[in-house]
Amino acid sequence: MASSDVKPKSISRAKKWSEEIENLFRFQQAGYRDEIEYKQVKQVSMVDRWPDTGYVKKLQRRDNTFYYYNKQRECDDKEVHKVKIYAY
User: Fold this and answer.
1) Which CA distances in Å does 20 have to 5, 53, 71, 77?
2) Is the dihedral of CA 44, 48, 49, 55 positive or negative?
3) Overall pTM > 0.85
4) Three-state DSSP class for residue 2
5) Percent helix, strand and coil across the chain, each to the nearest 5
6) Which of 10, 35, 41, 57 could form a disulfide with 87 if both were Cys (CB 3.0 to 4.6 A apart)?
7) What is the pLDDT of residue 4?
8) What job does this protein perform (predicted)?
């Protein structure tokens, strides 16, 4: 990869749901740490988002298949603790 690779300095787990946690859940379900890693790997400048909620709409996995997400929340409360929050 290029010298623009950004590595996280620390990691923590999500404690409660928020819009940020919802989007992280979607990126991690598709196999990426977060939006930063997705943009680096896929060489894209924008991520498809729902205009009314701002949630991620579509992501391309590393094997080039797509994940499509609903407008509504998809990260249930029982899944929140699985989401990793990376600090740079």
Assistant:
1) 22, 12, 14, 14
2) negative
3) yes
4) coil
5) 30, 20, 50
6) 10
7) 63
8) Essential for spermiogenesis.
β-partners of residue 10 are 87
Residues 63 and 57: beta-carbon distance below 8 Å: no
Question: Bridge partners of 86?
Answer: 11
Contact present, 59 and 38 (Cβ < 8 Å)? yes
d(CA 7, CA 20): 19
Task: Give the distance between the most distant pair of CA atoms in the chain.
Answer: 38
> Domain ranges in the chain?
15-87
> What kind and span of H or E run contains 35?
helix 35-42
Q: Write out pLDDT tens, residues 54-64.
A: 999 999 999 99
Between CA 76 and CA 72 the distance in angstroms is 11
d(CA 52, CA 38) in angstroms, rounded, equals: 22
Q: Which two tokens stand for residue 9?
A: 């300095």
- On the question of pLDDT at 3 being above 60, the answer is no
